[in-house]
Specification:
The complex is a heterodimer of chains A (169) and B (170).
Chain A: E1 2-10, E2 14-16, H1 26-39, E3 41-45, H2 46-54, H3 57-60, E4 65-69, E5 80-83, H4 86-95, E6 100-103, H5 107-115, E7 121-127, E8 129-131, E9 135-136, E10 144-154, E11 160-168
Chain B: E1 2-10, E2 14-16, H1 27-40, E3 42-46, H2 47-56, E4 69-73, E5 83-85, H3 88-97, E6 102-105, H4 109-118, E7 123-129, E8 131-133, E9 137-138, E10 146-158, E11 161-168
Parallel strand pairs in B: 1-6, 1-7, 3-4, 3-6, 4-5
Antiparallel strand pairs in B: 2-9, 7-11, 10-11
Classes of the chains: A alpha/beta (169), B alpha/beta (170).
């Protein structure tokens, strides 16, 4: 099973403003929805899950099977399963026989998946912004990874997509 | 006066490790900077970045080997070797006075952020290394600025390294 991290970010690596705002274009949303549908399964952190729920975003991306990673005790239901750790989330997805799973933020869950060595590929949609402050692609953690550039794509006049493979973790 | 901000960084926007090491960046990034600085004829770096590069790279890649005029940004305004500017505005004024038509700003985090804050940066060129760093020095030190960009070009400068070239929307 492949875990694919897919995020939109500013040129300096911010995935949202400090107040969680993401002023990205419709092109970006469409691309994200497409990728989620392609995988059929999504892993997010609790905060991202709550933000998406509030904005009715899960419906917009086709209500994928979603695993929410959280340390809090929350009852799972039909469309959502709660996992205690990245490893847990990974095992749940594996049992369900998904071939590709999308990891969709936020910064803490992204970092903990990277730290656990569970990310295979990364798609970054680079939005034409600089945010001096904001929510980082990865929350500050002591890890590093070497990547291999697989390709780049222009999404619109000012938006580009970078596709990487994680080669050392 | 055209102000171009140049940085080489990890995909998530770090220009150095917490201990100032830049070992994750390839030599190609230095050549990019060199070309840019020499084309413009004038570049500005922060006092700390200048010191780090001077001490770490005693041979080869060093500011003193560049055929370009350095200006050091230092609030204390003391440096015996080079021209010093106390603010981004002063640095730009100085470059203008010396007859340059463009100025390359190249680190570190604080210098980059302070230039962006003045609203006087026209273009941003970012070399993106295929590497992720969990923490380090960000390309822009945390500040309240937000700006919108226009993509000018994207190109590969070596297998794996991308160069993103943006115009800053005013």
């Amino acid at each position: 099973m492949k875990v694919i991290l897919y995020m939109a970010m500013t040129v300096n690596g911010m995935i949202a403003r400090e107040n969680d705002d993401t002023p990205w274009s419709n092109v970006e949303w469409k691309n994200y929805a497409k990728k989620v549908k392609e995988c059929g399964a999504l892993i997010v952190g609790r905060r991202t899950y709550e933000i998406m729920k509030k904005g009715d975003d899960l419906k917009k991306i086709g209500n994928p099977f979603t695993v929410v990673v959280t340390s809090q005790k929350i009852e799972s239901n039909k469309s959502f399963v709660f996992a205690k750790s990245p490893k847990d989330a990974f095992e749940i997805m594996k049992k369900r026989k998904f071939r590709k799973v999308l990891l969709g933020g936020g910064s803490m869950i992204n970092a903990s998946f990277m730290k656990a060595g569970l990310v295979d590929e990364i798609y970054l949609d680079v939005e034409p912004f600089v945010f001096g402050k904001g929510i980082k692609l990865f929350s500050d953690e002591g890890f590093e990874a070497k990547l291999k550039l697989i390709g780049t794509k222009k999404l619109s006049k000012n938006e580009i997509q970078l596709h990487y493979k994680v080669i050392r973790r | 006066m055209k102000v171009i901000l140049y940085a080489s960084m990890s995909v998530n926007g770090f220009i150095a490790r917490e201990n100032d090491e830049e070992d994750f960046l390839s030599d190609e990034n230095w050549f990019s900077f060199q070309k840019l600085a020499e084309n413009s004829g004038c570049f500005v770096v922060g006092r700390r970045a200048y010191k780090v590069v001077k001490e770490k790279y005693t041979s080869g890649y060093n500011f003193s080997t560049l055929k370009a005029k350095p200006i050091i940004l230092s609030r204390r305004g003391k440096n015996i070797e080079f021209d010093v500017a106390r603010s981004p505005r002063e640095a730009i004024k100085k470059a203008k006075f010396l007859g340059f038509k463009s100025l390359v700003v190249s680190g570190g985090s604080k210098t980059n952020a302070s230039f962006l804050k003045t609203g006087l940066v026209n273009e941003i060129i970012l070399n993106v290394e295929p590497f992720i760093l969990g923490k380090g020095f960000p390309v822009f030190d945390e500040n309240k600025i937000e700006c919108q960009l226009k993509l000018k070009s994207i190109r590969k400068i070596k297998p794996g390294i991308l160069q993103l070239h943006y115009k800053v929307k005013k």
